[in-house]
Structure formats: structure tokens, C-alpha cells
Design a protein that fits this description.
The protein is α/β, with parallel strands linked by helices. It has a single domain, classed as Maf protein, CATH 3.90.950.10. The protein has helices at about 10-20, 45-60, 95-105, 170-180, 180-190, and strands at about 1-5, 25-30, 65-75, 115-125, 130-140, 160, 165. The longest helix is centred in the N-terminal third of the chain and has 13 residues, at about 45-60.
């Protein structure tokens, strides 16, 4: 059964399909389905933005639609970048520019206070229009330089002490079992099934 993901991000669709393996669902991007509406993410919560995306795409299809909103929440920055994680250093900024802005804002904050979490909220709109949201979180600390080639986004600077590595250094199976998106996706699959 097809579940349309409100994203154009191929990495995200691949990651979602890794978690959906063995279920009756297969994730496809909205763009591969010819759906490309303008989506204004103006909610102040991850759940709110995920619902905006899922509801918008659902207007164009009678399939299941899933959308997520995720980001990095840094304790010493009062939860920033939070819902603004993707556009934190400007709309088309690179992750290197985002890292630099974070390091600049952290300034003289002692490194033992660089605690953070990845948060992922997922919204699903079913074919009948009913909907639900789930959330996953992954606790960690920030590194002062990127490490690892796997993953994407903030993964290279997000270190998980219990594993002794960044999420960009983890094998996909390990990352999916402990990551914010993996936890949220597993919760979503439980609700779908």
C-alpha cells in the first residue's frame, strides 16, 4: 500500500522505507506522484508543521499521506534551532553554515552544557481524512567539529554518548533503532497496523 511522503528529500524517503520494510506500506515522495503544492510551515510546534504538510498534500490524493517535521533542540540555546532547523542560517544555507551559526551562538558556553536532542513529529492523514501524530526523541550532545559520513543534516555534530559516536557514524540499522525519526516511524507503523 502506498504512503505518500510530503517531502522531496530522497534520503528521507529511503530512510522511511528502511523502517517500513516488511510491512504492507511503501513510501513514495509527493513529487514522484506529481504533487508539489506550496506548503507554508508556520506552526510553532513540530506536530503543527507536520499536520500542515500532511493535510496540504492529502488534498491532492486519496492515499495515506505522511509528513514529518524534525529538528535539533539545543538546551543552552533555549531549544533553538527547533522548528527552524532547516532554515536556521537562512533559507538556502549549507549545513556547514548552520554548524558555524550554532557554534557562534554557543560562544563561551561550557561544552558540558552542549546537551541537545533530535525531535521528530510525524503526522499521518488516512484515506478517510482521519489523522494522528506521533513523536520520537533522541538525546545527545553536540561536538565542536563534524564526524562521520552517513546520515544527513545535523547528524555529523550530534554525538550519542551511549554509542560513542555521532549519528553520522552509525550504520543505518543502528541509527534507525535509536534516532528520533526511527522512534517516531516505529510508533507510526504501530498505529498504522
Amino acid at each position: 500500500m502506498k504512503i505518500i511522503i510530503a517531502t522531496g528529500n530522497k534520503d528521507k524517503v529511503r530512510e522511511i522505507n528502511e523502517v517500513l520494510a516488511g510491512t504492507e506500506f511503501e513510501a513514495v515522495s509527493m513529487k514522484s506522484e506529481g504533487i508539489d503544492p506550496e506548503i507554508i510551515e508556520d506552526a510553532d510546534t513540530f506536530e503543527g508543521n507536520a499536520l500542515i504538510k500532511a493535510r496540504t498534500v492529502h488534498q491532492y490524493t486519496d492515499c495515506y499521506v505522511m509528513a514529518d517535521d524534525s529538528g535539533l533542540c539545543i538546551d543552552a540555546l533555549d531549544g533553538a534551532p527547533g522548528v527552524y532547523s532547516a532554515r536556521f542560517a537562512g533559507e538556502d544555507s549549507t549545513y556547514e553554515e548552520k554548524f558555524a551559526k550554532i557554534y557562534d551562538l554557543l560562544g563561551d558556553t561550557p561544552k558540558d552544557k552542549w546537551t541537545a536532542r533530535f525531535v521528530c513529529a510525524i503526522a499521518v492523514v488516512r484515506p478517510d481524512g482521519s489523522e494522528f501524530t506521533v513523536r520520537g526523541e533522541c538525546e545527545g550532545v553536540l561536538l565542536d567539529h563534524p564526524q562521520g559520513e552517513n546520515g544527513f543534516g545535523y547528524d555529523p555534530i550530534f554525538y550519542v554518548p551511549s554509542f560513542g559516536m555521532t549519528t553520522a557514524q552509525m550504520d543505518p540499522e543502528v541509527k534507525n533503532s535509536i534516532s528520533h525519526r526511527g522512534k517516531a516511524l516505529n510508533a507510526m507503523v504501530e498505529r498504522l497496523l
